[in-house]
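Subject: Re: docking follow-up (adenosine-5'-triphosphate)

Dear J.,

Thanks for your patience while I sorted out the input files. As discussed at Tuesday's group meeting, I've set up the holo structure prediction with adenosine-5'-triphosphate included as the bound ligand rather than trying to dock it afterwards. The sequence and the ligand SMILES I used are pasted below, so you can double-check that they match what you have on your end before we go further.
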Amino acid sequence: MSAHPHPLQRLFQFARPYRAKAIWATVFSVLNKFFDVLPELLIGVAVDVVVNQQDSFLAKFGLVDPYEQLMWLTVLTAFIWIFESVFEYLYALRWRGLAQDMQHELRQAAYGHVQKMAPDYITNARSGRLMALLNEDVNQIERFLNTGANDLIQVACSSIMVGAIFFALTKSLAVLAMLPIPLILVGAFWFQKRLYPRYVAAREAAATVSTRLNNNLYGMATIQAYTAEAHEQLQVQAASDDFRARNADAIRFSAAITPVIRMAILCGFVATLLYGGWLTLRGELGVGAYSALVYLTQRLLWPMTRLADMTDLYQRSMASVARIMDLLESPVPPDGAKRIEQARGALQFEAIRFGYEPGQPILHGIDLAVPAGKTVALVGGTGSGKSTLVKLLLGFHAPEHGRILLDGESIADLSKQSLRQQLAYVAQDPFLTDGTVAENIAYGDAQPDRARIQASAEAAEAHEFIAALPNGYDTPVGERGSKLSGGQRQRIALARALYRQAPVLILDEATSAVDNETEAAIQRSLARLHAARTMLVIAHRLSTVRQADQIHVLDQGRIIESGTHDALLVANGAYAALWRLQTGESTA
Ligand SMILES: Nc1ncnc2c1ncn2[C@@H]1O[C@H](COP(=O)(O)OP(=O)(O)OP(=O)(O)O)[C@@H](O)[C@H]1O
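The structure tokens for the complex came back this morning:
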């Protein structure tokens, strides 16, 4: 199916640090099973005591009186049961502990890995699919380790132990009782092989449902505004139906396992009952041994009915392990090693060519410089590649050709963390966390500075509205900032970027949702900060970039004009035309 090792092997590899814990858990499972099988033998010994009395098996140990034999048998039974219970407690504790540890480690590792990927990876991988992976797949492994692993070990143990007892007591009966085992195992493997792809398909379908639900919950306002509820309900229904059908397909198989195995067990049980009874009647097998063997046949074969559940759990969790390991092994974008402590903020884009998809170039050789402390603006039609250029600067993608320099250092050589610490970025659609206003402004700072938070909010023209909120800076903003207006969200995002005090400030449509008056005030604040920072500003509203030291006009991935506002008006090209359109002024 794939070049990867078996999922179990991949899980073992991942769980290396937990090897000692797993070994202890296994030891306790084995010991528990050992003490669990013994009472069956004691039944045989008890029958032997009451039937054979002075000639019983126990009499050989010097216990001639049958009443004394019974007494000792009772004491022995009590001890066996106590040990069985103690080891049951210990294995349950260990396996469940291990399940929790693995669940935690896998989730941490998977999320940690996702955080190293470019943001586009998450949208390409479908965020719902990732959610399913981080939640359900991880839980699936916990479920298996909670009970499944112990069950598998104990079935194997009881088969070996009971088999050994059978062989010690009577070989011919042992062969008969064990005849169904190969049949059961072949059957279980046959089912298992067919179940695995069905579970993989079911997991995929679950991920699709999750993606759709995720998307719809996020876009509920649009769904309702467009009265698309019925349409979306149908879409969810279709995805859920598919999930149900795939699960039903797996269930048809897994439900058949127990009845089939039971038939095989029946053969083994009937054989022991008949042939063992016959041997006992002929005096070739003791009555005590016969009683023990009848019970032990059950002990040997009956747990195998649980193979169905175990296989089920095992296959589900292996499908989940494979998905998680695939994620963990997906290549992380390369990272540079150099660090930059305090950049001056000089940026240089040299002959940048880039496309998201092979053969579909978005940027066709961009050359531009942003001297330290200067403001450079990028304007141009929608889809012309402005945000893409910023994504390259942030190191989300690497250019196919050309390089980007920060203070003369290629950003490809810099560690992404070090690079991004020099940049303060306000995205087109800023992301606010589900915390308070203050937490959002001081985002990423372990020791938030209250005075700096307020100063940043003032510079972003946000202080006034924040102060008017019910709890001021301590007001929760809601999920993704849902309790705020678009313009308020933008200003908090701007305050956050200013709080960072990074040498380079990148504003991608950072004030598009605020009114003209507020924007003018923000411009004045930014102008005061101007000298200290390099600014790369993207804007559709040209009044925003009017004061920039240099303006570049992008068109379909190429710079078609560059200059100051005044020079571009004089040049009377695309920029001047756009300016006239936006202001109604005549520049000719
Ligand atoms: N993750 C992506 N995968 C594939 N194509 C993308 C991706 N992001 C953007 N694009 C494409 O790249 C082109 C440039 O997009 P970009 O966001 O850089 O434009 P922009 O100039 O910032 O536009 P706008 O002014 O509308 O924000 C567009 O054609 C867009 O469809």
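A couple of observations from a first look. The radius of gyration is 36 Å. Residues 120, 356, 362, 382-388, 428 surround adenosine-5'-triphosphate (CB under 6 Å).

Let me know if you'd like me to rerun anything.

Best regards,
T.
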